Amino acid sequence: MLLPDLPQELGSLVPADWRGDLLVGEMALRLCYSALVDADSLDTSAHFQGLAGPRVSADADFSHLYQRFEGRRRAEIAGRGGSPIAALREQIYADCLAAAEREPGVFRLGAPTGAGKTLASGAFALRHAEKHGLRRVIVAVPFLTITEQNAAVYRRLLDEEGGEPVVLEHHSQADFDDPDAGRWARLAAENWDAPFVVTTFVRLFESLYARKPSAMRRVHRLANSVIVLDEVQALPHAMLVPILDGLRLLVRHFGATVLLSSATQPSFWALEEFKDVPCTDLIHDTPRLVSELRRVRYEWQLDPQPTLADIADQAAAERSALVVVNTTADAKAVFERWNDAAQEGTVWHLSTRMCPDHRRRVLNEVRARLDEHERVLLVATQLIEAGVDVSFPVVFRAMAPADSLLQAAGRANREGRMAGGGRVVVFAPQDGGQPPSYKTLVGCTGRQFGPDKADPDDVAALGRYYRNVYDMLNLADGQHVGKRIQCARQRWEFETVADGPMDASTGRRDRKLAFRMIDDDAINVVTPQGAETPELRLELEEAIVDLRHAPVPDLAKLRRLQAYTTNLHPSALRQPGVMALLRPILGTEVRRGALVEWIGEYDPATGINLDPNMEQFVF
């Protein structure tokens, strides 16, 4: 017998709650499996390194980290010029610190865009962890642009030069082979053995509902942690049922605290999974705060419907303006309208036709020009919304779901310095496109918002909008994918949750009914043409050749390509000539989920060049 001290009967060691509720037991098994996998990996690593024991970080001193965070924040504020909303930001910050003294549970931070939620939520998490002896802070956000932006803020306030880092940035674009990242980052990313983790919704929740050891090593770190979900309105509607239930269980049974942060707080409590979950609002009078922080006025151009050219011309008449549209084709159409007549260096384009590093460079240039009060005309898809820190005097937003309208408005007059307020023009382009998923959401938006109706920042109307969305999407229906995942969880069918139920007709698992945060049917396209310099482009092309011929892919080279990898919707493959411009990197065919190289034209302003008249894919 390998373990002579192991008792014959283990039932007494299992908490009654774990045995009495199948969903609690399922979550407990996930956490226990994660801890076991991590312990095995750490022990194995220690053995081969000749260490006496596994390498595990000591518990963080959150009292010290909070004091460092607060001291540096105050120093930064003292060095800034005042703004009309600075006092309100300080009040929000103070309210968050006061709420951090409350017992662990579910908290909600509903404050308008530009209200300082990044700093306020970080301070809440650190103070709450200190007060209640929690083990770590995990901040998750929906988009890579926000992950990188927020991680930079938290590193500036928490990391100590020369000391072991505090903040771990973990997402698909994080380069753990960078010498500056160090061995700590590479190891900590495997199991989130860090005091303060900044990650993405995809990484967090697909780890939670995974079943493979490499993905699950970090799941047990969620217990006894503060989990901050920033821009929580961006959680995919289809997965809300298992996501909310997972959060409920982590809070109620496994010592976690969850903070839901958003300017457009969804009505999660209208769904069964959250209806009995107590919640503490960090801001007590959100409607008053919205009124005091209102920095824009809304205008509507819905009837008659303008063309994209009309909107481009209206924006071009402004000193600076942002136009947000719903498809990459629309973004390119607006950009080309400007580019024919605009002064060089004043017009910019952002969409996922461009690789992430290209988008980062454009955002940096746009911010620098805005800071210097230089003219900027920027057209972008949805990726500019939800936390991207830019401020324009005028924002034009194509009709979209209500939360997108409000998020776009957050890019106007961000500091509240304009005497008359910023302008947000919501328009319905007669020649514009939209993703198929928008149809229901835009319909719900039109019922609540518009001329002679509410503005998108109306808190009560926003609540009605979300409830209408949940009803129209049938989230409570037993045959909805979220409910079917819940049923699989209750039966402890871990493979069904992660990979979908078995399809009797094909003998394969149906991935469409599995837990997944994003549609993974996209084609991952590497664009070395998006590199900043010819030398870097050559380096990337050499890495592609090495990967194509290597018997085993070099993970360091794959990570090197991530910042130059974007996605094409599968519908792009149906366009004449596109398949011929995609060359496999791993494997021998171009298919959904594959990694391929784009060998076609890559425009230095707009990225991958497809025929805009035929294009159907979106941001």
TrEMBL record:
Protein's UniProt keywords contain Hydrolase: yes
Q: Which residues form the Helicase ATP-binding domain?
A: 98-283
Tell me which InterPro entries the record gives. Cas3-like_dom (IPR054712), DEAD/DEAH_box_helicase_dom (IPR011545), DEAD_box_RNA_helicases (IPR050547), Helicase_ATP-bd (IPR014001), Helicase_Cas3_CRISPR-ass_core (IPR006474), P-loop_NTPase (IPR027417)
Report the CDD domains cross-referenced here. Answer: DEXHc_cas3
Tree of life domain:
Bacteria
Which GO molecular function annotation, any one, does this entry have?
RNA helicase activity
Annotated Pfam families: Cas3-like_C_2, DEAD
Q: Which GO terms describe its biological process?
A: defense response to virus
Kindly state which keywords UniProt assigns to this record, in alphabetical order: Antiviral defense, ATP-binding, Helicase, Hydrolase, Nucleotide-binding
The keyword Magnesium appears for this protein: no
Question: SUPFAM superfamilies this protein is in?
Answer: P-loop containing nucleoside triphosphate hydrolases
Q: Which PANTHER family match?
A: CRISPR-ASSOCIATED ENDONUCLEASE_HELICASE CAS3, DEAD-BOX ATP-DEPENDENT RNA HELICASE 47, MITOCHONDRIAL
Q: What is this protein called?
A: CRISPR-associated helicase, Cas3 family
Species of origin: Micromonospora rifamycinica
Print the organism lineage. Answer: Bacteria, Bacillati, Actinomycetota, Actinomycetes, Micromonosporales
